Amino acid sequence: MTELLVVIVAALAVIAAATVVGPRLGIASPLVLVAIGVAASFLPVFGEAHIEPEWVLEGILPPLLYSTAVSMPAMNFRREFGAIGGLSVLLVVASALVLGVFFMLAMPGIGFGWGVALGAIVSPTDAVATSIIKQMAVSKRVVALLDGESLLNDATALVVLGTATAATFSLWDAAGTFAYSVAVAVVIGWAVGRLNLMVRKPVTDATVNTVISFTVPFMASVPATLLGASGLVAAVVAGIVTGSRAPRDLSPRNRLSDSQNWRTVELVLEGAVFLTMGIQIKTIVMDVRDEHGGIGNAVLVAAGALVLTVLVRAAYVGPLLGVLAWRSRISLSHQPRILEFQEKLSTPEGKRETLDRMSARGRKLSERDLEHFHLRVIRGLATTEYFLREPLGPREGIVVVWAGMRGAVTVAAAQTLREENTPKLPVLVLIAFAVAVMSLLVQGGTIGPLLRRLMPEGAGPDDDGERARVMELMREAAASVPAPTGPTEIVSARRHRLAVLGAQRAALLDARDNGTFDAEVLAKILANLDASQIAIEMRG
After folding, report:
1. How far apart are CA 124 and CA 436, in angstroms?
2. For residue range 344-377, what is the model confidence (pLDDT) as tens digits?
3. What DSSP assignment string belongs to 460-514?
4. Among 369, 124, 356, which residue's Cα sits nearest to residue 233?
5. How many Cα atoms are found within 13 Å in the side-chain-facing hemisphere of 226?
6. pLDDT tens digits, 297-326
7. Which residue segment(s) compose the domain that 270 sits in?
8. How far is residue 501's CA from residue 422's CA, in Å, rounded to a whole number?
9. Scanning 52, 109, 475, 524, which has the fewest C-beta atoms within 10 Å of its C-beta?
10. The pTM is what?
11. 417 and 473 share one domain
């Protein structure tokens, strides 16, 4: 017991040190942790280190993906959903099939089915690994694409893996399994996300509220897994619902407590993933060396697989960017007509004229229907402006390709293979580990210099103009609150200030949901409002 406690305390200290020291050395902290894990694997205490894959897939990944989804701007996710869906499904399937052929040719005896299984293991990008990119100056659309892809592609990879290792293969069965897995996970995740907010809304104790939040990813993932659906997708959906609705349903103090504690959990779990990756490598290498006479061929195959994943990704991302650029041009060509229509709907006379015109054409619309339509017009215009403000060109495409790193999912999925029915199991596991580690070292180690070369200093959107527009919106919201009246001047002023903050928050959240302002700018200003409210409540 004492030995285990020493290991845990040492791991926490190493994670904290790597997080502080890594960036100062110009090295991403995950790479430092992998290296420390490899060095620690030679200590006697880690002589036969093996981490059960279920601990990673069911114990670590759900809270990590949930936390990432909570902080991800929901509007950006919706805007990029088509591209994210393609990267999460089509690219994973294509990569698994191409790699299946490669592994079948490079390792005679495993066959196409097991080749596809190994291809499915190394195909998905990893949310923990792509966290490296968030520490750097990069386009917000690139971050949205990488985040969304890494949150959802695990489900595709695990379904392909299960199908490829099944006794009989059927394309329709695979498609049906995937559709069922995702649909059930979405329903469960949405229900748990809404129930989570309903339960936590009346809880005023921030500590208790945060403790309840720790159960949410498992409340979503466990039932989904038991029903044969994707527990990871369920956790992601619960996180998106929670992140979108929490500013309206939870108090600032509860959300601040949530944010601080979840950042701590994220840091510890991410660090544990990379440390355990490094620690397990020695055991796997020794198994392959003892049973198959050497690791050279396996490492070469892994290097070839990594190169192939990058090439397949580049072949997919290039046309994808072309489609996204074409969609932006189409939206831009429609913008003048939509702007004219928006101006008409912004006046009572224009609304009445539109309703009369629709009625004359035989389409009966209520005023509520017209308001919904007006809202869609506003969101459509905001999306067009977002695409113009954040274009995806060749430089961003290179970043999307090179930042697609492998990590914890690849390592955990490889260890779900069982020895009794898997040919050359130690070799397959070593290849998966080698792909993940080389991806982190090569791609993760070079993404910083690549970004500095591709993205000149000062590049990116100008947030000052955006902040000025947001401040004008806040002034209008404050002006809508009646002046303070009451028997006690101090109490009235306090109530008035809280009412102003509430009106400003509601206006900013409406703007966020409509997409009319940059999500990161709004998040910072909302955090300032929360801080102001907490200070007033504490003084009160």
Report:
1. 10
2. 667 777 767 666 666 666 666 666 766 777 777 7
3. S--HHHHHHHHHHHHHHHHHTSPPP-SSSHHHHHHHHHHHHHHHHHHHHHHHHHH
4. 124
5. 7
6. 888 999 999 999 999 999 999 999 988 888
7. 49-323+405-454
8. 61
9. 109
10. 0.85
11. no
